[in-house]
Input
Amino acid sequence: METVGAFEAKTHLSSLLDRVANGEEITITRHGVPAALLVPVEAKRPKLSHREIVEGMRDLRKRVKPSKMSIRDMINEGRRY
Output
């Protein structure tokens, strides 16, 4: 893990972010005292396929109970808060 001063981090932020995106962790210090830790974001989940999206929508439709309320009424109900 590399340590970088706050001034250097400010001037080289773009390159530091590239390094962090590649898995590196960088500590940013202020007057030699650790102030922040740059770490990569957890791995992104793969995008869902069209089939998975459709199956998810069908499952949701089975779980949602039908209501006598219209879509317009539902929208207006949501706007009350």
In short: The chain has four helices and three strands. Helices lie at 6-11, 13-21, 50-63, 71-78.
